[in-house]
Design a protein that fits this description.
Largest sheet: 9 strands, mixed
Number of helices: 13
CATH architecture of the largest domain: 2-Layer Sandwich
Helix content: 40-55%
Oligomer: single chain
Number of strands: 9
Strand order of the largest sheet: 1-7-8-9-6-5-2-3-4
Mean pLDDT: 91
Strand content: 15-25%
Shape: globular
């Protein structure tokens, strides 16, 4: 039997016994979080000063940093957006598989352009990059899953840059996930630095043309505002060990802004805009510095707060910020009871690499390699064993 269900059941029983105590603790922490939010809602100078004190101890501290809007602010969406060009991009990838017979990787980016109220059909675009041979060893280091993901993220934003060229009028572009680049920092520092430099160039070009760009984070898990409140709770001794200080653990930004009975944000409303205090500040400077706000794309009685990341040039222009706000609310409403930007959903459909497509690429590569008289490697014995257990079907 592959799973010992008796052990699993015993653990589940143990989890169940602690449910009431966990609920009580969480409710107490949530009450404290709301109290802190109300207490410091307008104490922006004090909040910024306390974060500066925390940075003096740990430069890598990650939290929200207020600008000029109270913490509990709530702003309704603007009137319906009449004119704008929307561009959404999403990517998927095939990671190198050392157990496979052929070593390769693929980054596939799908994008869609829609001109509002034009009567024109949306235009789709796909860009596929196949990596093979030495391309799988940048700087002599094997290409990891994290580096492939990093390459995909850069390719998504690059696609937005390319497609936005020559378009007149306001442009709103967005991708799924944060604007901030993640992953692979410790795996290949040189490649990470190269990708970051290229990425900054893309953001700079978008800024120079006035293109609004954003990262849409559905069901966010980073509790940046809660961390700000925890920092405000810390005394001098606790500031010295801030990474171990989590008195509000379990409470989330999503709950704070989207509590079902009493959400801070009514449907369609956005929160205050915050700067992202993090170790990445050294890369995202000036007009490229990263900010975010929460947006309730849900409905009455069914709040759904998402995090929207934007560079400073969008924050500094209220017209751009309002346009982005309105576009995202309308895009999410198009998806009905499961709010998510319609164009991002379409971009994902375009970008996703199906299992059959991966197999087809493997066959095409194998044919060409044999055609040129080059030897093919074998599957690893481990993979052969897995395939036999799966009835001949590979699992990815």
């Amino acid at each position: 039997m592959p799973i010992d269900y008796q052990q699993i059941y015993e653990k589940i029983q143990e989890i169940g016994k602690g449910a009431r105590e966990r609920k009580k603790t969480l409710e107490e922490r949530r009450t404290k979080a709301r109290e802190l939010l109300n207490t410091y809602a307008s104490e922006l100078d004090a909040l910024r000063s306390k974060v500066d004190s925390a940075k003096a101890v740990d430069q890598n501290i990650r939290c929200a940093l207020p600008l000029d809007e109270p913490l509990a602010s709530s702003y309704p969406p603007p009137d319906s957006v009449i004119q704008a060009t929307l561009i959404a991009a999403d990517g998927s990838q095939i990671n190198p598989d050392r157990h496979g017979a052929i070593q390769f990787s693929l980054v596939n980016v799908g994008a869609i352009i829609m001109r509002l109220n034009s009567g024109e059909a949306p235009k789709i675009s796909t860009e596929s990059e196949l990596l093979y041979g030495e391309e799988l060893l940048p700087n002599g280091i094997p290409l990891s899953d994290g580096m492939v993901a990093l390459k995909r993220d850069v390719a998504e934003r690059t696609k937005l840059d390319e497609l936005s060229k020559g378009i007149k009028g306001p442009i709103v572009s967005f991708t799924d996930g944060p604007i901030e680049l993640w992953g692979a920092k410790g795996e290949d520092a040189k490649s990470y630095e190269e990708y970051t430099k290229k990425y900054m160039g893309v953001l700079s070009r978008l800024q120079s043309r006035g293109v609004i760009t954003a990262g849409y984070v559905d069901k966010p898990s980073a509790d940046l505002v809660l961390r700000l409140l925890e920092i405000m709770m810390a005394d001098n001794d606790q500031l010295q060990k801030l990474r171990e200080f989590h008195p509000l653990r379990g409470v989330s930004d999503r709950w704070l802004y989207g509590e079902r009975e009493n959400p801070l944000l009514p449907p369609g409303h956005r929160s205050a805009v915050f700067h992202i205090q993090s170790s990445s500040e050294k890369n995202y400077k000036g007009v490229l510095s990263l900010h975010f706000f929460y947006l309730n794309v849900g409905t009455e009685g069914h709040p759904w707060p998402v995090r929207v990341e934007v560079p400073r040039w969008v924050v500094d222009d209220k017209g751009k910020l309002d346009l982005l706000h309105g576009v995202l609310v309308e895009q999410c409403r198009m998806m009905g009871g499961k709010p998510y930007p319609y164009l991002l959903n379409r971009a994902h459909e375009i970008a996703v690499v199906k299992h059959e497509e991966k197999q087809q690429i493997e066959k095409m590569l194998a044919m060409e390699i044999r055609k040129q008289g080059e030897d093919l490697d074998d599957l690893s014995n481990k993979q052969v064993g897995k395939d036999s257990l799966a009835g001949g079907r590979k699992r990815y």
